């Protein structure tokens, strides 16, 4: 279970600051999906970022998340946007609050690495209709793409995340699967023999994970790049689960992210008002349940 499941996490900040998915993703999935569009389920839905995207393509969408604060934020967001065909429930990936054989498409956006995956896959097999689609999407550490190479913008966030003197010791164990582009999940899905047309995708091309089955590079990004100030980027990093875990263990210490950003901005001659362009490398596994 991730830090998002516990009290004290700001779900509204997560909704405002986390990356968003674009139309290229929806169109690719609809081209891959061959079943009905009666019901979709978005698991580990958080504040409903992608759940809302699905609502325009499916008759009914269910969002499931273990965090009540995420569910509340998602419901408020749907209500504010006048979306009536979304239902949200509290629940876990390993015991989905969904009836058997009722889901046409099931998505997990940046959440599958928190699950006990074998148990989750058993639940997917139960709730997906024959021919239904499973979609797992994840994204890596954000990269600053408008800084000169000498400033190491592409490694800025990774340093904060991975350095054990910073946040490196505060990630849940499942987060290592992000660096592996979910490759162990691919092996588990293929080994089950219950799925066909299993594909492993990424954008942009990288050499992060060894994959004997091959990985396809998407022609375009599925996640919107974003321009924000360094101050906004600092606020985004504070939505990381590792930061929440660090704060829980160091409630009286100087803020580790503020200290890091202040030091880096001083070294690089940057201010909190300077703009940065952020991109998120991402990847996916898609599969179709056998008829």
From TrEMBL:
Keywords: Methyltransferase, Transferase
Keyword ATP-binding applies: no
GO process annotations (BP): methylation
Transmembrane segments: none
Domain Methyltransferase type: start-end pairs: 42-136
SUPFAM superfamilies: S-adenosyl-L-methionine-dependent methyltransferases
A single MF term (Gene Ontology): trans-aconitate 3-methyltransferase activity
Entries under Gene3D superfamilies matching the protein: Vaccinia Virus protein VP39
EC number, as in UniProt: 2.1.1.145
Domain of life: Eukaryota
InterPro entries according to UniProt: Diverse_substrate_MTase (IPR051052), Methyltransf_11 (IPR013216), SAM-dependent_MTases_sf (IPR029063)
Keyword Transferase: yes
Top-level EC class: transferase
Family: Belongs to the methyltransferase superfamily.
Name of the featured protein: Trans-aconitate methyltransferase 1
Organism whose genome encodes this protein: Coemansia aciculifera
């Amino acid at each position: 279970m991730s830090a998002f499941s516990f009290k004290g996490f700001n779900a509204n900040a997560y909704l405002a600051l986390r990356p968003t998915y674009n139309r290229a993703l929806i169109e690719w999935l609809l081209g891959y999906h061959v079943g009905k569009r009666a019901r979709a389920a978005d698991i580990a839905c958080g504040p409903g970022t992608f759940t809302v995207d699905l609502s325009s393509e499916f008759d009914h969408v269910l969002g499931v998340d273990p965090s009540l604060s995420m569910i509340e934020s998602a419901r408020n967001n749907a209500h504010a946007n006048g979306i009536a065909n979304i239902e949200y429930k509290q629940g876990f990936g390993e015991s989905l609050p969904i009836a058997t054989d009722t889901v046409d498409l099931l998505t997990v956006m940046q959440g599958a690495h928190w699950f006990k995956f074998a148990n989750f896959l058993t639940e997917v097999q139960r709730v997906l209709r024959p021919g239904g689609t499973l979609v797992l999407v994840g994204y890596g550490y954000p990269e600053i793409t408008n800084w000169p190479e000498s400033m190491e913008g592409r490694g800025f966030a990774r340093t904060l995340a991975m350095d054990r003197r910073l946040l490196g010791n505060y990630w849940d164990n499942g987060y290592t699967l992000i660096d592996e582009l979910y490759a162990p999940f691919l092996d588990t899905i293929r080994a089950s023999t219950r799925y066909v047309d299993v594909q492993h995708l990424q954008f942009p091309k990288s050499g992060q994970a060894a994959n004997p089955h091959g990985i396809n590079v998407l022609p375009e990004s599925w996640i919107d790049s974003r321009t924000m100030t360094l101050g906004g980027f600092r606020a985004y990093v504070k939505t990381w689960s590792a930061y929440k875990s660090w704060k829980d263990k160091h409630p009286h210490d100087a803020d580790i992210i503020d200290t890091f950003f202040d030091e880096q901005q001083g070294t690089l001659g940057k201010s909190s008002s300077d703009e940065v362009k952020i991109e998120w490398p991402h990847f996916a596994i898609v599969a179709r349940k056998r008829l």
